[in-house]
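Recall the central idea of this unit: under ordinary conditions, the amino acid sequence of a chain determines the structure it adopts. In this exercise we apply that idea directly, starting from the sequence alone.
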Amino acid sequence: MYEFIRKILFKLDAETSHELTLDLLGAAQRLGLIKLFAPKVTSKPVELLGLTFPNPVGLAAGLDKNGDYIDALGNLGFGFIEIGTITPRPQPGNPQPRLFRLPEHQAIINRMGFNNKGVDHLVEQVKKSKYKGVLGINIGKNFDTAVEDADNDYKICLEKVYAHADYVTVNISSPNTPGLRNLQFGDSLKSLLSTLKTTQNRLAEEQGKYVPILVKIAPDMDQDETKMVASALLESGMDGVIATNTTLEREAVAGHKHAEEAGGLSGRPVQEGSTRVINWLKAELDGKMPIIGVGGIIDGASAAEKSKAGADLVQVYSGFIYRGPKLISEANDAIAAIKA
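Accordingly, the structure predicted from this sequence is:
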């Protein structure tokens, strides 16, 4: 069914198709028809971060930026879902067009620019949701907030989502907000992580609930840079790392009509780079911090590859766009097979 629907949706421009797909899923949820789209996913619980994940395959942030479709997505069989990226204030994002499909490469280029309705809207949507599974909330900074003032944006978001999240992801690796990736290094990173940890400790004491914080990093780092980031995460007491975000590299799609579009490339072309970073992280972290692997998971084999490299859980995004819900069960079964 999904393949038939996808053929129709892919005749539309990418962003219109994205919005229509979510609207259709929302309608299916309201009409009680969502199970028609959901594959049978075998329960393979994973205990991590003080949470129980029904299976190791999650939805990456970016699909449901505002938390408007939590219940529908939560009924498709994912082991967990992550919403956002959200910012303190609503913002429109970058000018359109800003989303491009590269079907020959099972890839997507986006320069959305954290378009979202603001953290207050997302919190209200989470409150309305009936979803009982593991929910991650991905936070970022507004585009017009100076990098040197970014700590406060992340603090605002963390304070507002803390009571409503099972874990929080700190997005410092999107290539579509000017200066954001500078937060991955040096004093900027140390300052941000210190602010987050102090805020987390205070909120945990006030609310009697410890919510893990994970940091999402880019694939465009060399081994030494990855080691430095891993070291900073450990020293600051962060709870986990998500590897990786989209890439700025274009070698794998050279010659495609959209290859030179600005933005982050996701899907199959980022598979190798993401897995390489996971391998480096595994060696550096040595089991001291969980890793969620994301980037280029388009079938069971690529999901299993992430697990073998050191990912404790995986997330899908572009592969889900191209393959549909059946990718969830396929990835889950492949990971289970290598752990049997």
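The longest helix spans residues 186-207.
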